[in-house]
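Problem: given the chain below (420 residues), write out its structure.
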Amino acid sequence: MYFALELGRALTLPMNLWASATRAALATEPWSALPLAGPALASAELLERATHRYGKPAFRLSSAVVEGETVPVRESVVLRTPFCDLVRFERGVARPQDPKLLIVAPLSGHHATLVRETVEAMLPEHDVFVTDWVDAKLVPRRAGSFDLHDYIDLVRRLLQTMGGGAHVMAICQPCVPVLAAVAVMAEEGDRAQPASMTLISGPIDARVRPTRVDRFAREHSLAWLEAALVHRVPPHLAGCGRRVYPGALQLQAFVSLDVARHVEAHVEHFWNVARGDQAAAEKHRRFYDEYFAVMDLPAEFYLQTVAEVFQEFSLPRGEMVHRGAVVRPSAIERTALLTIEGESDDITGLGQTEAAHALCSGIPSSRRGHRVQGGVGHYGTFSGRRWREEIAPTVRRFIRASAEVREGSSGELLRRSKIP
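Solution.
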């Protein structure tokens, strides 16, 4: 697979260079004044983007507005591990009273920059940390393996590094390992247990309203998935010999979920470029620059996640075992729980994330919240207008309230955070 991919890139490189040069020429005088220059420019751009190699995007968060004042933001690596860096977004203002928040980005093919808008919305009121995952094909084999249980251990280590009283937010795939990590910490009385846990669009119980993604995982055996999707990293990369689920194959899977929508988006982009609608064209570029930038996953992590989350449902069944002990979410008592779901989510079925509440029976009802956001799909629960204007304020209020309320009358936390 890697050989075919590299060969394809080599063969299309001249085409990419030609399209890039044509696009540059048609965007300047006198060529831009020629008849049909707009459609020709749009065609050149689509060809260039189709043959482009998309690298890891940057977060591009250089400032934040804190209490009406624009302050600089600087990224710093707090902890380096072979498969993940803990990145802190340091604001140029001292606000020790702001809650520390760990945002666990999905390890599901895209880079952590997928949660850029999530980070941006939380920066004004929080000291934000993010899991910046390392592309598995760049991790040397001597670093060892990384599976679902290593993930659980990593979440715990990151929370311990941040210190007690922190808050954690998991988006999509990390919801299961984050819930498991917090359960293990509670069971063992770890002082770094988070004050609150926000789970967004994650498959806590994939048996609930299964989607096309869930059915695919359930209908294919691990042996078939391993044979069809797992490859070894070639010699010219740092992870030479490591078994991975390549990003290129993941991208094919992402696109196949809704081919018609992607085709429609690119046709619309063609006409936006052709008629000079720069705002709409730039919005398309930003989205697909992120969408097409994919990374390889460790094979053992991918296969074990499919088995435990989508085939065996070990966590909701009470059968998940971590390092020899059963994971018991009911042991969580000190951590407030907020779950967020999208009404039109076609990746994580409605109700799959809410299932966490039944499992976390030890959390008082006064320290829980659940929100179903109308009019959004999967990505809309952590990015886009509805996230910024409706969901993020709910999360911010819940985190603030959970930091202030430890014990109180029934409904006090919900009242303070104003969760519908």
